[in-house]
UniProtKB/TrEMBL annotation:
Gene3D superfamilies linked: Dihydrodipicolinate Reductase, domain 2, NAD(P)-binding Rossmann-like Domain
Residues covered by the Saccharopine dehydrogenase-like C-terminal domain: 138-385
Superkingdom to which the source organism belongs: Bacteria
Entry protein name: Saccharopine dehydrogenase
Record-annotated Saccharopine dehydrogenase NADP binding domain positions: 4-134
PANTHER family attached to this UniProt entry: CARBOXYNORSPERMIDINE SYNTHASE
């Protein structure tokens, strides 16, 4: 049915490649390209499909991307490199007539700030070119928005309160490690918190607000209010929302390490002089921390991510909780990667599948909640991320 190019051969890219290869009726030709070709070759070898092509590309260079796109001629590119590359890859897509999908919104390298405005600005150009760009199609952002769209379609006339809850109750047996790219992860967590209430954004100090929330099959875990990018698009696309918040669990050990990293200046993203050369402390830290791709083997426990929603149906107040639990070990057995990479890579593959099947094909730049959630929800159950619902239960928040 279609030719797909995966950019990035990290934890998420590895899962995307496995899942794409498991669906040969949809993805008829596959290429993995990244900064380090040997990593792409290793992924292709682990999958064991000799037809998977690999290539080296610097995704910061529009020219290199255009040359690659013009030689392989993919119908869609799945961008699972880093958020810094979103705009160069979108530019190259426009120049070569390729459709686009990613899992994280653009961030400039020198400011830890993420918002959709940079990518939304491409809407008219994608529309005019007749190309589709699907933004934020991982788990959160991604499935969190699709769950919300599904709730709006089937359970509510008006969504009023939305809490996205993300728990990782796994144990990787390392003193400190991040579950996805450490640089991106630490930039996200050390920022101010932010949530939406009555038409305004309320800013909090980093990790200032927290409470214990109870996760299915896991129990209570301290959960911290963070700013997360899907809040921006969800309050725009569901204007009845009065309050939208995002919560993530962290253990005390993790937070202590994070505090030390910040206090000693290792979370800095500006350049410092070291032995006559310039280094960025957070990038150096990434080089010495455990590689998120190596955590899978000893990872126990599971993740639980979902949406807790309150709103109106036929004039009556209702609650709705929809979630998935994902076992790190099961994810590892299937793809060699832990649950956080798995929960991101599976939805990215399904998004590309939706596009190639013509179900999510509309010229422009879109967030996932702007498409029909039903065929995507059906695939989540088939592709390894089944979902569960609690109707009119206690949401706790
Ligand atoms: P990794 O760091 O493991 O992998 C990133 C990959 O991108 C590496 O293979 C890296 O190459 C490659 N890369 C980096 N820069 C370039 C470049 N200039 N040109 C070509 N390739 C490049 O990250 P993850 O796999 O953990 O995360 C991938 C993406 O997924 C990130 O954007 C992250 O924010 C997002 N994500 C989204 C989630 C969601 O739920 N929506 C959750 C988790 C992650 P090299 O190996 O040479 O360094």
């Amino acid at each position: 049915m279609g030719k797909v190019l995966i950019i990035g051969a990290g934890g998420v890219g590895t899962v995307v490649a496995h899942k794409v290869a498991q669906n040969p009726d949809v993805f008829t030709e596959i290429m993995i390209a990244s900064r380090t070709k040997s990593k792409c070759d290793a992924v292709a070898k682990a999958i064991g499909n000799p037809n998977i092509k690999t290539a080296r590309v610097d995704a910061d260079s529009v020219d290199e991307l255009v040359a690659l796109f013009n030689s392989f001629k993919p119908e869609i590119v799945i961008n699972v490199a880093l958020p810094y590359q979103d705009l160069t890859i979108m530019e190259a897509c426009l120049k070569s007539g390729v459709n686009y999908l990613d899992t994280a919104n653009y961030e400039p390298k020198d400011v830890a700030h993420f918002e959709y405005s940079w990518q939304w600005a491409y809407k008219k150009r994608f529309e005019d070119a007749g190309l589709t760009a699907i933004l934020g199609c991982g788990f959160d952002p991604g499935v969190s928005g699709i769950y919300t769209a599904y709730a709006a379609k089937h359970h509510f006339d008006e969504i009023q309160y939305l809490d996205i809850v993300d728990c990782n109750a796994g144990n990787h047996h390392k003193a400190f490690a991040t579950n996805f790219n450490p640089e991106i992860n630490i930039r996200e967590i050390t920022q101010n918190g932010r949530y939406y209430e009555n038409g305004e954004w309320v800013t909090t100090r980093p990790l200032e607000i927290h409470k214990a929330l109870t996760y299915p099959n896991i129990g209570p875990r301290d959960s911290y209010l963070l700013y997360h990018e899907e809040l921006e698009s969800l309050v725009k696309n569901f204007p009845t929302i009065k309050r939208a918040r995002f919560w993530m669990t962290f253990g005390q050990e993790y937070l202590t390490h994070l505090r030390v990293i910040q206090n000693i200046g290792m979370a800095r993203i500006d350049e410092v002089e070291y032995n006559g050369m310039k280094i960025v402390p957070l990038q150096f830290l990434k080089a010495v921390l455990p590689n998120p791709q190596d955590l899978g083997e000893n990872y126990e426990g599971e993740t639980s991510i979902g949406c807790r929603i309150r709103g109106l149906k036929d004039g009556k107040e209702h609650t709705y909780y929809i979630y998935n639990n994902c076992s790190h070990q099961e994810a590892y057995k299937e793809t060699g990667m832990q649950g956080v990479s798995y929960t991101t890579g599976v939805p990215a593959m399904i998004g590309a599948m939706m596009f190639l099947k013509g179900l999510w094909k509309k010229p422009g730049v879109w967030n996932v909640e702007e498409f029909d959630p039903d065929p995507f929800m059906e695939q989540l159950n088939k592709q390894g991320l089944p979902w569960h619902e609690v109707v009119d239960g206690d949401l706790e928040i």
